[in-house]
Fold these 4 entries.
Entry 1:
Amino acid sequence: MLSSEWILIEEPSLNSTENENSELFFDVSRSDHCTNIGCRDFWRPARFGGFLDNKGKTHIAFHSNERVLLDCVTPMVANLFYVLIALCFVIALTSSLSFIMNLLPPPSGFLQWLKRNTIFEMCNMLLTLCVCVIALIAQCEIARVRPDCDVSLGGGVFMVCLAGMVSLRSWRDSARRPDDVLPIVDFERYAM
């Protein structure tokens, strides 16, 4: 979650005249080039602004902790990243509870049922899937704002996916019948 590379943005190469104009634009507006966006940019509440350039085009300015980004982050993208941060905290919480329940087996009752049926692990997988889908939606929203750039998912999203796949290992260990393990093994083969 501390990564600032959840979404990567590559600008197309420009000729020298366009490059000088864009550099002058970024210098005058005191903004940074938008090359990557991550959860680190959204630890504090987002501040947005906007202005019109000399050609009459409207620009959206996003102010984060350390930088100002132009035409990159919209309020919709900020809201999606706030949801991503919340889901990552919920995943960490359910993973911790699952770990504690595997380390210290609970007495009989509802907690034993949760452990036996691997409810926390299933929740982790579903929440991880939700994080991936929301990250894809954020990527599409940024690509809509910057149609001339190549927008892709970065390492931060893949780290969350790998963390979710670790839950598969505990599912395999909790299965009692060989038939219960087959879907897990098939999914592990597909994911690798």
Entry 2:
Amino acid sequence: MPRRGASNDLKARIPVLYLAGHPIKDICHLLGIKKTLAYKVLNRYQEFGGVSNPYAYSCGVGRPRTLSSADLAFISAIVNHRPSVYLDELQDELWLKCNVRSTLPTLSRALEQLGVTCKAI
């Protein structure tokens, strides 16, 4: 699971407290953050006028997902209906019904994402 950073509203409090005259040590104690985060946010605030970098890449960068949420719902329905289905059969049904080509490792990861890790027949 990826690490979650501090929220933007928490980061927005750092420059407000700093401009109000609070030292960095007190800000860190009040907000429960590390000094490095406080200094990074203050540098971004000074450079960009906000707590985040407007030029940073958004989450929409990268390769699009092979399987959509509708495809995952279809896979989940098949596995619930037929628990003993093999990956290659699942691959064929996904191609026939949803017109989606997928590899066996992708299907295996999708099943793991859905919480299906071990089949008990």
Entry 3:
Amino acid sequence: MSRYRKHEEFLFLAVCVFVSGFTYTHGGADDTLNTCSHVREEFTRQNLGAAELVPEIPQTDELLSVCSRTLKHSSQKSCCTYESEKKYVLRAEKFLKDNIHTKNLKLKSLIENHITDFEKRIISMIEVGQNNTGNKLSDWYSIPVSEHRLAVNHLFTDLEEYMKKTVILPSSVAKFFDNIFPVIVKNSIFDKDSSSSLTHVHHCLSKHRQDIQPKPFGDFPAKIVENLNSALSISRAYLDALHIVLEAINTTDFLVLEDDCKHALTRLQYCSHCQGLMQYKPCKGFCTQVMRGCLSILAEIGPEWDDIIGSIEILVRGMGGVNSIDKILQRLPNMISDAIMHAMVNAPKFFHSMQKMCKIPASSALAGGQGKVPHNVPDTSRFLSINEASWSENMYVEVMRFTLDLVDYKGLYKNMADEICTQPIQFEQDQMSGQCWNGTSIAGYQMTLSDPSLVSQAQNNQEVKVSLILDPKMRRLKDKLSSVNLNLQSHTDVEPQSLNVMVSDDAVVYSGDKKINLGKGTTLEDDEDLYNSGSGSGDAKQEEPDVVISSKDTFPERERPPPYEKDRDNYIPPPPNQNKQNKPDNGSRTNQVSLPLILGAFLVFLRLAR
């Protein structure tokens, strides 16, 4: 009886071992999968294409070039075909581009609306200043509009243009006083009888105004330049910064994804369909790894992006106060009036210099024998005012409110990859979950995540091949962001922030022979040394670098899917089992089965040993 019981116990243990091993290893597709009906339904539900692109039953398609990497062996049947795979690739690419666009869209709209509003306010203030200056010249100094209109219009047009293009403010202000000087002499300095004889010297007075001593307008032109330059240059730097931020958004909106990125996105989101595993979401770690690899080029501009937003924040703090643009434009008509008053009061002092230089007739005389001053109190009802409540305070409040919104977008490009993976509908949110798609089966994602930086991704990312050669558009954008940031810092009282080291300038140094210096004596012949892929004939001799990084020594080898060919007739499949020997097994059946079987066998051995 005891012998029978021993056999019974042995059988029971054997069954337990078998069941535990089977249950633990069920991480991939069911080998008995005999229909693709659910895959076809999901394919049509997502409007990926015609249902006929998905087979009715699993089949083998040697032309699979992306999802073949997720299968256990090349002859494994699946619910994917070459044609359905192409649709998956297109949709995966669209998913990422749509996410980038969505994250950019709100900020882009916010900046565009603010720029429009800010420019309108500036233009309105300039127009008010222009109108008040003209009225003051007419009402206080009895100068006909026809005589001062051109000079006033030129000055304020230059102020408006200064916000959009390069205008030399000292030249604009000097030209205004050159043009207005003969008008002031004629209407406000000489008496009416003498004024009629000064028409022939109008050009001379305008040409030599700056040579007359003492200066007719004193230091007022220089003070006006100083005030205008202080206020307008800060506002222009502010607008320039916002425009470069917009350029960054537009550049990233049209980001071109590399084929390797598209393939990784497809494996992440759709290759599970090939095995009928649509109900499982991609693992969060798998998503993070793929997105960081695809968006490493955006993470590369992250430091410059954060720097310029920080500099805008500091600049805005100094835009208010007595020297703000609205206060300066409000005071400008009075500053011009003070300059004219100075010329009228001090006319006797520069009269002889002016008379000698422009050969003014000796019979000409100052009004009343000296400079005259306006004695009428003008009707100020014609003067427009920049209401401080609606212009000054409200404008600054709007700028501050916008800046607070802008600061929220610090880290946008550095963290975008991780942010995309926080979508619970698309991706598993439990980092430790074992019930998610890890790229080969349903199990936890075991790969170590790489830092988002470009160099780290190029060296360590196992899902996406990342090139160290920065896209020319992104390189130019980095340079522009850095340049505008320096300009912003020149307008603040704080010490310029140390610029983040650009990979293109320090961490990665390019030379004519395409060598890439990673620093610390480590050099790559080109970015392909990271993957041991190489190019060219290989016959040419190259100078020995300090250290040449080899993918065999530094980076674990990974299976590289073949290029995705659009023309299937020209497609040449790779040799069977190419690079299979070192392929990382993300939770494969072999590794998962071994542990329970070994433990079970050990228990059986202990039982029999009794």
Entry 4:
Amino acid sequence: MKKNIFKQIILKFILSFVLILLINLLIFTICVLNIKNNHSVSERIDTIMNHVSVTNSAITLDEKGQSLLKQKKLWLLAIDNKTGKVQYSYQKPQAIPNQYFYTEVAKFSRYYLNDYPVFTYAKGNYLFVIGFPKNSYARYSNNYLSISMIKKIPFIFLLTILLNCAYFILLYIYSNYRLRKKILPLVKMIMQLPNGLSSSIKPIYGLEEIIQALEQTDNKLKEEQKFRQDWIAGIAHDIKTPLSIVLSNVAIAKDYAHNPELNKYLDPILTETYYIQNVLNDLNIFARLNNQACSLQKENIYILSFIKEVIIQILNQEIWENIDIAFHAEEDLKNVSLQLDPFLFSRVIHNLIYNAILHNPDGCQITISLTKINEKICLTILDDGIGVTNEQLKQLNTLDDQPFDIAFIRTTGIGLYISKKIIQLNNGRMVLSSKYKEFFKVEIFL
């Protein structure tokens, strides 16, 4: 994997570097060729001088030569080698003298004549001077350079820099796109790991070892999740048997003991035993809900009769001496059925009622109502107990947004946490409201 990825990255950057060098070399070559083509002064002078005839009696420039001079805005003069006088001129500017000394000839043959870039050509007994427009060429010693080309050099340089920048920006965008295309699926898989991967990972070239590691991690997490679920289920099953014995013996003792002082000790044992039994059921469900592989066993249940049966089961425990439970339902809901997991939904009702009883040791009135609101079935469980503060209510409403600490199972409300999860899995919504020392209300919309 390392070899493949780094080999690809290094190879691509080497190729990119070579490519940009070739592009720069191409630009440089084009510029040089352009300079060469535009600056062939010697060829132009040779062409013009081919149209100049020198005889003993006169110097003549044919029509073709005159046309070339006019077209290029050039001028021509012939200086006698012996006298230094101008013997012939064509389109000579007025500022150009008609007599020259050897020192003057030596100077302008290398540089300028009255700011005109000039070039010399010896033919016969004459020195021909061909003048170019001012600011057309830059003369330095025996060489020259086009002024227009000199002016273009900064633009060419800037254009080259811009092309290089554009190239590297496009290279960055392309590399980023390719990298994201490869890495994004991996990021999504890593984010899915806590919940378990739902499907096998498609192979990605160059990332085989990472994908293999992700699959191994996913399998290990699923194995640990299954082990945890099986372990909790086994513990719950092992504890339920002695709990059942304790419950039955305490219930028998209460039936035969008519001593109020003794009942004072038996009632808490019975209550806490039921509480432990309920917690074990919740832990079992908690492990099941945290296993993403679990599926709901939904059935079509008549909601009204189902809730009545659950309430009767709770009342039959006969341990709620200070608790009054009242149930109200709209008559037209008698034949209404919903697709729910009956076991899990039963746990929701148990948890919410147990929660009201547990947090009101001095007793309270629990009112359960079933109504229809805006095409939704609403189950309301209201108690007139001590309620909770605004801060506690806020904490309860955000239970599913924060990691659940099993160490504080009795105080943080595992029953509410699990109930909310179950309702969400059944496509419902649970709303909590309370006023301290007045009431606590849970509304479930299905």
